[in-house]
Amino acid sequence: MDSEGSQKIAAVAEPDALLAPGHTFESVTDKISAIVLSRPVTPGWVFGALIGFGLLMLLNLVVTLLMIKGVGIWGIRIPAAWGFAIVNFVWWIGIGHAGTLISAILLLLHQKWRTSINRFAEAMTIFAVMCAGMFPLLHMGRPWLFFYLMPYPNPMWMWPQFRSPLVWDVFAVSTYFTVSLLFWFVGLIPDLATLRDRAKNRAAKIIYGMLSMGWRGSAVHWSRYEMASLLLAGLATPLVLSVHTVVSFDFTIGIIPGWHTTIFPPYFVAGAIYSGFAMVLTLAIPIRKYYHLEDLVTMRHLDLMAKVMLATGLIVAYGYATEAFMSWYSADQYERYMLWNRIHGPYHILYFMLITCNIILPQSLWSKRVRQSIPLLFIVSLIVNMGMWLERFVIVVISLSRDFIPSSWAMYYPTKWDWATFLGTFGLFFFLFFLFIRFLPMISIVEVRSLVHETAEEKAHS
Amino acid sequence: MPQIFHRSTNLIARVTIFGGALIVAALGFALYEIAMSPWYTEQNVTRQQPVPFSHRHHAGELGIDCRYCHTSVEKSSFAGLPPTQTCMTCHSQIWTNSSMLEPVRASFRDDTSIAWTRVNALPDFVYFDHSIHVAKGIGCTTCHGQVAEMPLTYRAGTLYMSWCLDCHREPAKNIRPRSEVFDPFYEPPSRSNPILVDGKEYTDQMAMGRQLVKDYKVKNLQNLEDCATCHR
């Protein structure tokens, strides 16, 4: 980290640069690999990882209790049979979308600003999908029979119900997880080889060596690497759109008022990317500060991510407007009541909080001063995360708790175990993330080095 | 810098990748085979009974009708197990000193039931009715196998849902004329064994089956596959 070269590197990049000036191939490699290889374990990391581990153990406890007692420990009661589990599922899986968008779509669009944020955004995707995937399984009530969801030859001669969007979910989410994991791993291979070559410790050499699968950096390796990345990006691109589309079908196939707006799929996808970018910012801002990565993850990155949030946030706002319009225009008394119920019903505070968090406050991102202010950006990102969670709560719970027959209306209240499950997935997410920061290069060495080359060339030509 | 791995690692890596795929496939196959094996399904496995009752002797050699003992098969969901009195209609007169039959006589004397071991049992979440099957021309031997040739009774089918569905999806494969339902030696029509139904001679099961499905008004075939037909 303290190599001679780093003396000349500006600690903070200029606002519009993607990389601080003065970086060379070597300085980039030194800086990123040092975080994994030579940086001592700091109390800050231990503290964070322990909190994550503690919450993970809470998840362990809740899941055990759930297996013993069943889903009755949650607040789900008819008519609101979908509670926190589905809200959290949609929220977590939405968060994952930013990572795939950054690594796949921006790769195909040749956006260079993806290079220094794609690695940890992809890690975020994978961990978020793991958290998301757990909820539908736990929500089934008998999670140990999860394999009933897969079409496999069995003596019952039964297939899953292919007309059910819940089965589409299984395919959408498992494909998404597989492709994201492969994409992430393929991207890691050259960096793992770098770590293997630089590691001093024999165990580290062997582990990184096994993971790098014999990478020697030959021209053939590079050509295959490029081809594999391109193919996986091509596979992952439609997934950015399809996964949340399928998730929105979970709702639109149901007969509940408020779930039939035709804009649901694109509005869900935009919401997913919105919350995903908010989460990337929430993670990037503290990490970049703690590990002094301001020269790699520059203000320009944060600025661009804020702009993506602003754009997708506006699409989401348009989605809310369409929902309101459709419920009026449908002239259906239940649809119209649903809107009235959102604004005046027992959960109206949550609806107004949702509008505030997702539409009103993020408009501050129009101001360059807000986009350039790290504390404000961090606060906005947290607000959007919360707003997007509230959106799912509003969609799931407000519609379900008051459907067609007033005599069967009932309130939904989460129990302490609902909260514990939700917090527990945070434990899983953050514990995995802390391990990731410690044991894998959180920024792609290879891709940032290509950026060094390109920025140097641009300078030479100008 | 010395090499971390020996040359042979390349081979090991390749073997692990292909071997992994192979092991997963082999495991799946093995699990399926175990699930289908008599060890697990108890198909074709004879059960020990308190009295070594032989269907071969009673139903086969002596030609006693199934309904003589299983009296409720035409009226009820349950075919019925005979009370000891049914045994004693004959055995109060013949084989009265047989030691093999002592449990039967003891049961009669003490007015207690013989604790037979159940051979064919469906789970409680399956609604199954003997009477409707019999009424629509499904013979005893279709599900219970060649009972008239069993010295000790065993389960002839796996009792898996696939086994039920096999017929529910295509009842014409197994349906027979109502008059033949209780014939333990019934054989489906063939060239050497033509069967006469309503004045028409059939030499082919499928041709006869399709006609009988129509004649007996077997419910809309779609309904036979509905979950709620058996899981009520």
Average pLDDT taken over every residue of chain A = 91
Quick one: overall form of chain A? globular
Structurally, the number of domains of chain A stands at 1
Total count of helical runs of at least 4 residues of chain A: 15
Helix content of chain B: 40-55%
Subunit organisation of the chains: heterodimer
Radius of gyration of chain A: 23 Å
Strand content of chain B: under 5%
Q: Let me know the average pLDDT of chain B.
A: 92
User: What is the succession of H and E elements of chain A?
Assistant: HHHHHHHHHHHHHHH
Query: Tally the helices of chain B: what do you get?
Result: 12
Strand content of chain A: under 5%
Determine the most extensive contact between two protein chains.
A-B, 14 and 16 residues
Strands of chain B, total number: 2
- Overall outline of chain B: extended
Order of helical and strand elements of chain B: HHHHHHHHHEEHHH
What are the low-pLDDT stretches of chain A, counting only 5+ consecutive residues below 50?
1-7
Topology:
The complex is a heterodimer of chains A (462) and B (232).
Chain A: H1 25-37, H2 43-69, H3 84-108, H4 118-139, H5 165-198, H6 202-211, H7 219-252, H8 264-290, H9 299-329, H10 333-344, H11 348-360, H12 368-371, H13 374-401, H14 416-439, H15 445-461
Chain B: H1 8-36, H2 38-41, H3 55-61, H4 66-69, H5 84-91, H6 102-110, H7 130-135, H8 140-144, H9 161-168, E1 195-197, E2 200-202, H10 205-215, H11 221-225, H12 227-230
Antiparallel strand pairs in B: 1-2
